[in-house]
Amino acid sequence: MEDIKALFRTEGHVKLGMGNIYRCTRIARKLQQAYDADIRFIIEPTSMVGLKKILDYGFKVDLVDFSNVKQYIKYIKTYNPDIVINDVLNLEEDYMKELKKLGVLTVNFEDKEFSTTRDYSDIVFNSLYLDGETKVDYYYGSKYAPLRDEFKNIKERKINKICKNFLLAFGGSDPSGFTLKVAKILDKLQDIKITLFVGPSFTNHEQLNDLLKYLDKNKFIIKYDVEYDPEYFKDADIAIASGGNTAYELAAAGVPTILLCQNQLETERGKLFSKYGNLINLGDGNKLEDIILMNTIKKLMNNYELRKRMSKKGQELVDGYGVDRIV
To answer: How far apart are CA 318 and CA 233, in angstroms?
Structure first.
């Protein structure tokens, strides 16, 4: 196949998180490997954290003001790509209509059940929701979860009868401050270790440092600005996480998980995830009482058979080949 030019439009910032950025960079890297693709990103000025991450991965990226449809359609015409890949939360209908006129292959990544722009695209990937009525090429489900290659072919997880290691992973930004909330609760448990993942757009560093002055420092390990890797998960007996792609990564690694949702979008996703049986969904974590979370943690710690079933179902659900299927 001749070289292809692929243009990614995406976003990543404190309010949204970094899931879209990570998904796009993984796909971009795989396109380069498979087809020697010429890759370029466009991103809004509000996504400066995402911009830095894209540059760290070595991709070319331009800032474009998406408030002006004509401006970025003009930009796309100038770059003249073979493929435009959109991975933003709310795509504009006017933008998609203009993109349709260009005749370029258009690929959208979605995390919603319903979309007004879906039928303007050529291909849609949605790792969550089925749409049996759309006329576009629509690929859905956990087999399209866009995980790193390290999550392929993970061996069946051995579940310990006694829980000593916890993992907290609330995405790139943790806008609701669940890291602080859950750390305080887990600190009340004896003889455990807690690994905290702090993402690149996390804004509560000062509060976290202040909190750790009053907690048992020997219990905590903090990992700053790292992409999740099964190597980091290998010792975890239980994970407490939010409802983005992290839920799929933990499933692939076979980690029994308690889910706390940060917003309405994650709350809807959580309902889907819970049907798979690999996690316990506690819904909107902003409204969750501490005592309910503590009781759920203790019950899961004491239920070895449930943790075994959760682990097995998670690894059956996600095999780590999502990016390959997409590309």
So the answer is: 15
State how far the Cα of 248 lies from the Cα of 2, in Å rounded to an integer: 34
Tokens of 147: 């995980």
Closest alpha carbon to 256 in 299, 193, 196, 319 = 299
Q: Between the CA of residue 202 and those of 13, 16, 89, 198, 205, what are the distances in Å?
A: 10, 11, 20, 6, 7
CA dist., res. 28 & res. 25, Å (int): 5
Mean pLDDT of 76-85: 95
- Say how many C-beta atoms besides its own lie within 10 A of residue 277's C-beta: 15
What kind and span of H or E run contains 240? strand 238-241
Cross-strand partners of 138: 124
Q: In the chain, pLDDT over 70 holds for what percent of residues?
A: 99
Give the C-alpha separation, 33 to 208, whole Å.
Answer: 39
Q: Taking the model in full, what pTM does it have?
A: 0.91
Beta strand segments in 77-128, E: 83-87, 105-110, 123-126
The pair of three-digit structure tokens given for residue 34, joined into one six-digit string: 């498979």
Residue 149 CB neighbour total at 10 angstroms: 14
In one-letter notation, the amino acid at residue 263 is: N
Q: How far apart are CA 255 and CA 283, in angstroms?
A: 19
Tokens of 253: 């690694």
Give the three-class secondary structure for 281.
strand
Nearest to 59 by CA among 6, 103, 4: 6
Neighbour tally for 53: CB within 10 Å: 23
- Average pLDDT for 67-78: 86
**Spatial distance between the Cα atoms of 219 and 287, rounded to a whole number of angstroms:** 26
